[in-house]
Amino acid sequence: MRRRSLLLAVPAGLVTIAGCGDGSSDSSSKPSDSASPSAAASSAPPPPKIVDGPVPAITAGTRFDQKPTVAKGTGDPSKNLAVKTVIAGSGQSVAENDFIQANYLGQIWSSAKVFDNSYDRKAPLLIQLAQGSIIDGWRYGLAGKKVGSRVEMAIPPTWGYGTSGNSQAGIKGTDTLVFVIDVQAAFNTSSSAKGSKVAQTDTALPTVGTNTDGKSPKITVPPKSDPPKKLVSEYVLEGDGAVVKASQTILCQFKGVVWNTGKEFESTYTQKRLSQFAISQMESIVKGLAQGVTGKKVGSRVLIVAPPALAYGDKPPTGGAIKKGDTLVFSVDILAAM
Question: What are the b/e assignments for 215-248, b being 16+ CB within 10 Å?
Fold first, then answer.
């Protein structure tokens, strides 16, 4: 039996290309009859030719991160992927397979019917620009754009919802879609917490490295020291973001070692992929990890020590470094929470 990974990738979007609901526990962010840019495509079309327009005019809400009003498309839309940078940001460049955090509005070219927007929900989208995770128009159109940018796109069906469209949202297979996207943040395998250092003065607890270069922080377990019997959750780097709620999904870098041996049992740094998981789902796997990140600030690195009762107890994964009754030590960089 294979060890179950902690790297649970839960869908961050709302409705897939096939019209299925997501696995998110936060129902407040899910419209019942809209279509987000998340996708579940089995195969990708060929890369599009990207052209600078035409795209409809933005008639109101012209500032970055302000809900826009977009005019109806004029004439026939381009058969290519039309992409226009409305506001040029100055942050890091976005690349394919990065995670992005963004507000967006989507409407149909021919009717100006808005089928989805995140502004009214006050819940930006946190999703990976990867094949099968998001419609291809976003995946290709946002590559190379910088954080802080407002991007408008006109996406033909080939790189949108395909010839089937999305009946739940009223999108036909012939509809060109218009999106306005405000790119708030981007994350990749080099991302790191950037908070302020917090003194690690308790000699009975492990110490965690404070490097912010995206490389694995060193975890040092105190030798010949008994592990704590209760959950420990302490800042190593304290960020200044919002406090994480138990109802949210977080994006993070993490590393886990066994207290008794110091052996690493799982790490995003080793696997070269970020972890995105719903805290409510993690509660059923490693309660200590779920409880340890709850209440901490986004942008922080957190030391979490989970005693057996809040880890795997007497039923550890088979074939791995974790044994019956082991206490687990985590370093978690909380990059984002939605």
Answer: ebbebebeeeeebeeebbbbbbbbbebeebeebb
What is the rounded CA–CA span in Å between residue 139 and residue 97? 8
| CB distance 216 to 255 below 8 Å | yes
Q: Contact, 338 vs 124, CB < 8 A?
A: yes
User: What per-residue confidence (pLDDT) applies to 34?
Assistant: 57
Rounded CA-CA distance 56/291 in Å is 46
Residues 264, 255 contacting (CB under 8 angstroms): yes
Q: What is the pLDDT of residues 24-53, one digit of tens each?
A: 333 333 333 456 787 644 467 899 999 998
Provide the b/e sequence for 307-331 (b: ≥16 CB within 10 Å): bbebbbeeebbeeebbeeebbbbbb
221 to each of 52, 54, 204, 209, 217, how far by Cα in Å? 55, 59, 9, 12, 13
pLDDT tens sequence across 102-139: 999 999 999 999 999 999 999 999 999 999 899 999 99
Pull the structure tokens for residue 137: 């128009």
pLDDT digits (tens, 9 = 90+) for 131-167: 989 999 999 999 999 999 999 999 999 999 999 999 9
